[in-house]
Amino acid sequence: MTFGRCIRTAVAAAMLLCALLAATAVSAAVRRPIATCVLRDAPGLNAVDLLRTPGRFDCRTPQSRFGAGDFWVVSERLPAIASSGLGLDVESGSVWQNRTTLYVLYADGALRRTGFSSARIGDHLLVGALFTTPLTLPGAAVPPVPPVRLLWHIEGAANTRGIVIGPELYDHRSQEKQQVFLAGFYGSFIGLAIALIVYNLALWRALRQRFQPVYCALVLCLLGYALSSSAILGLLFPGLANNDRMRLNIVLLGASAVWMLLFARTFFERRVFEGPIRTASTAVMVAIGFTSVLMAATLPWHATMVDRLNTLGFCGLIALVPAILWRAWRMRSRYLVMFALAWGVPVAFTVLRIAEALKLLPWSFWIDNSTVVAMMLEALLSSMAIAYRIKLLSLERDEAREQESAARILADIDPLTGLLNRRAFLARAIERKGEQMLLIADLDHFKAVNETIGHDGGDEVLRIVARALRTAVPADALVARIGGEEFAIIVDATAGIAASDILAALRTERMPFDLRVTASIGTCNGPITREADWNTLYREADRALFEAKSAGRDRARRARRAAA
């Protein structure tokens, strides 16, 4: 299976898994949405009078248009599920508010009061950032008396998305199934995030790629965001006020967006983020970071205005993504396809969240939690993109090592004859252990050879001589061209190689135009443990070569004494 097919299979499997889990949760839930109407709080208002006169409430104006403050929110007459029996709860989405008081009117006229505050939310907060309140009337007879209407008194609502958002009736069994699903979903993401952080930190210690610690910081922010947005953080730390949890959630969402852009800047080649695109990405990061901190620090002060500023920062991020991808395409980035796959799903879900924040879409629990789904897929696909880049990096390093090895070989080789050059010959000779024999061979009257058959013919003669020398000596011998027509051989002194055998081999070689080419050889034995030893050995062998030349050429002479 190819790498691309693996990617497509993994993406399809992840999407199918999310669809199946969502379908299971939805099918398991027995829910009934509740329509609500709003009335701004004023002195003298009380629950009993308001329940008697629900017509005073505004049922048409969207809740978010009322701004921040204190409110009364009344429900319609509760649907038939309210008479289904014991174990009925009402749930709504978690929003910024200081205190919630819920009045439940029952069919027999009884009125029950319950509620919670941001600082003491206790058992009213569920996984998925949901507020829940049981509607069972204490001490009710069997069959129980069903509730018929709900009335919320909300104090200190920031009202950036609504006052009481998405209220629904649940029975206990459906609620338990949903909580099991959400706990498993968020738990799997938390485990995935921890595994990705550990894995990439381990890789970073080995590879030291600058995008790896950035990716770990990104996943760490996503982990924190998942813990805070799911309200698991509030369940783990009961003393944490719900409003403070939401402040932290806002900061972590902004930090996640900033680290996503930083990851893009370190993941792509440097040329992709050169010029205006780098300036624009910096501006978007500053905007998101500043507005997120501002919103978390100032809520509920001018909540709607600050929320819009924060939303505009994320709009800048969405607008920047096509520019990054286009730039990467223009720069022929090798990582474009993988990065587009990794960012495609998060961008799509972020568009939904922005549309919800701008009131273009109604609030939805699934849209509200879609960010975690998007981040889970982004973390998975980004990890696969990192694996793909590491694969390319490995191939690049292997190729670089091969090129380096080839370059070193070329640097050590005489390009005409393929023998070692003088520098490489000397470096390897000094490393040899034990008694060595140095043979210096110099072609006789080579100037006349060049004048007779030309320099091209002379080069061919040098190649033939080099081939003959390699053939005449053992495989572990060093053979080099150390001058124009001068060659050197280092061989173990116990190898039994005689200079006369090499001369005989040269005489049997067929030269261009059947030209007769001979050589003179000088030899000397001695150790080569340091450069001074080489100088002594070479001087004695060169003196022997001079004696061979003086004696009539086409012969060999051994140094009169071994090099000390």
Explain the overall architecture.
- It is built from 15 helices and 15 strands.
- The longest helix is centred in the C-terminal third of the chain and has 43 residues, at 370-412.
- The chain has three domains: 3-25 and 182-398, Rhopdopsin 7-helix transmembrane proteins (Up-down Bundle); 34-166, Jelly Rolls, CATH 2.60.120; 422-558, Alpha-Beta Plaits.
- The strands form three sheets. A five-stranded antiparallel beta sheet has the order 1-10-4-8-7.
- With 564 residues, it is α+β, with helices and mostly antiparallel strands.
- It is 54% helix and 16% strand.
- The protein is rod-shaped, with a radius of gyration of 42 Å.
So what's the overall shape? rod-shaped
Report the biggest beta sheet as strand number plus sense, adding barrel if it closes: 5 strands, antiparallel
Rounded to the nearest angstrom, the distance between the terminal CA atoms is: 66 Å
Q: How many domains is the backbone divided into? A: 3
Q: Give me the secondary-structure category.
A: alpha+beta
Order of helices and strands: HEEHEEEEEEEEHHHHHHHHHHEHEEHEHE
The overall pLDDT average reads: 83
Give the tally of β-strands: 15
- SS element count, helices: 15
Structural key phrases:
5-stranded antiparallel beta sheet, Jelly Rolls, disordered N terminus, Alpha-Beta Plaits, 3 domains, 15 helices, Rhopdopsin 7-helix transmembrane proteins, single chain, alpha+beta, 564 residues
